[in-house]
C-alpha cells in the first residue's frame, strides 16, 4: 500500500502589504523565516487580499456617487448606496438579493456575494475604505510565478485564493480565483474505480481543493498568515487557469 502525504506550511511574519510592494520578495522573506526554500513542484497559495493590496485595488466609499440603480438596490437590501454602486461596477449581473446581501456574477465570471468587495483586514484610509478583487487574478498568479521562478530557479505552481460561499452549503471555503503553472482540474473520466467500472463524469477541482486546504492555515480573522506553501503533490506544469473552473451559463443549473 502506498502512503499519500501532503505538507502545508503557512509562512510566518509577513508584514502588512501596501500598494506597490514586491510580493515575490515578501514571500521569499517568509520562506526564509520558515527555514524553507522553493523547490520544483511546490505550490504557493496566496490570499487575494494581499494581491489586491499590492495592486492598489482600494476604493474610498466617500468618493463614490451612487447611480439611480444603486439607490434602488440599496433600498431593497439596506446597504450603503455608494457600496452598492461599487458592487454594480464590478459585476455583470445581479443574480439574487435580500437584506444585507447581493449575489452577483462578477466580471471575472465568479458568482459571489457583494462582488468580493470587503473591508475586513483592510487598513483604514482617509475615510471608509474597501478592497476590490484583482483585475485579473490569473495574470497576477502568472506574474508571481514568473518572478519567483526567476529569483529561485524553481518551477512552481501559484494559486490566488479567496473565501466564498456556496449556493447549497453553509459556510465559506477557500476557492481558487487565480492560478498559474498547475492543472486546475483533474479529468478522471475513463479511469476505473476499485471494481473496474469506468468513471463517466468525475472531474476534480484540483485548484479549489488546494485553495481550501491552504485556507485552513491562512485563517479568516487576525491570523496574519496570507501565504501557504503546499509540498508533496505530483503534477505536470499546465497552462490551465482558474477561469477554466468557471461553468458557462448554459451548464449552470443554478442561474
**Major beta sheet, strand line-up:** 1-12-2-8-9
The CATH superfamily of the largest domain is: CofE-like
Contiguous helical run count: 6
How many independent structural domains?
2
What is the CATH first-level class name of the largest domain? Alpha Beta
Fraction of residues in H or I helices: 25-40%
Backbone structural class: alpha+beta
Note the main sheet.
Answer: 5 strands, mixed
Rg, Å, rounded: 19 Å
CATH third-tier fold name of the largest domain: 60s Ribosomal Protein L30, Chain: A
What would you note in describing this structure?
It is a single chain. The protein is an alpha+beta fold and 255 residues long. It folds into two domains: 7-55 and 135-246, 60s Ribosomal Protein L30, Chain: A (2-Layer Sandwich); 58-131, CofE-like fold. The chain has six helices and twelve strands. The protein has helices at 23-33, 48-54, 68-77, 81-89, 137-152, 206-218; strands at 7-10, 43-47, 58-60, 91-98, 101-106, 111-113, 129-131, 157-166, 169-180, 186-187, 203-204, 227-231. The strands form four sheets. Strands 1-12-2-8-9 form a five-stranded mixed sheet. Strands 4-5-6 form a three-stranded antiparallel sheet. A two-stranded antiparallel sheet has the order 3-7. Strand 8 and strand 9 form a beta hairpin. The longest helix is centred in the middle third of the chain and has 16 residues, at 137-152. The protein starts with 6 loop residues before the first strand and ends in a 24-residue tail after the last strand. The model has no long low-confidence stretch (mean pLDDT 93).
Amino acid at each position: 500500500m502506498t502512503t499519500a502525504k501532503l505538507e502545508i506550511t503557512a509562512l510566518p511574519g509577513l508584514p502588512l502589504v501596501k500598494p506597490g510592494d514586491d510580493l515575490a520578495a515578501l514571500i521569499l522573506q517568509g520562506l526564509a523565516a520558515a527555514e524553507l526554500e522553493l523547490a520544483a513542484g511546490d505550490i504557493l497559495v496566496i490570499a487575494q487580499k494581499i494581491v489586491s493590496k499590492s495592486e492598489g485595488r482600494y476604493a474610498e466609499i466617500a468618493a463614490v456617487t451612487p447611480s439611480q440603480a444603486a439607490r434602488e438596490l440599496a433600498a431593497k437590501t439596506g446597504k450603503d448606496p455608494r457600496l452598492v454602486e461599487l458592487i454594480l461596477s464590478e459585476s455583470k449581473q445581479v443574480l439574487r438579493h435580500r437584506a444585507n446581501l447581493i449575489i452577483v456574477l462578477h466580471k471575472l465570471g465568479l458568482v459571489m456575494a457583494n462582488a468580493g468587495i470587503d473591508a475586513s483586514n483592510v487598513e483604514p484610509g482617509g475615510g471608509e475604505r474597501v478592497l476590490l478583487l484583482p483585475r485579473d487574478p490569473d495574470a497576477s498568479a502568472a506574474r508571481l510565478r514568473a518572478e519567483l521562478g526567476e529569483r529561485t530557479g524553481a518551477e512552481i505552481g501559484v494559486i490566488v485564493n479567496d473565501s466564498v460561499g456556496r449556493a447549497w452549503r453553509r459556510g465559506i471555503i477557500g476557492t481558487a480565483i487565480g492560478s498559474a503553472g498547475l492543472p486546475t482540474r483533474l479529468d478522471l473520466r475513463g479511469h476505473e474505480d476499485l471494481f473496474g467500472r469506468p468513471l463517466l463524469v468525475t472531474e476534480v477541482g484540483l485548484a479549489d481543493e488546494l485553495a481550501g486546504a491552504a485556507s485552513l492555515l491562512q485563517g479568516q480573522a487576525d491570523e496574519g498568515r496570507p501565504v501557504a506553501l503546499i509540498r508533496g503533490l505530483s503534477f505536470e506544469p499546465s497552462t490551465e487557469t482558474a477561469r477554466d473552473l468557471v461553468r458557462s451559463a448554459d451548464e449552470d443549473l443554478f442561474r
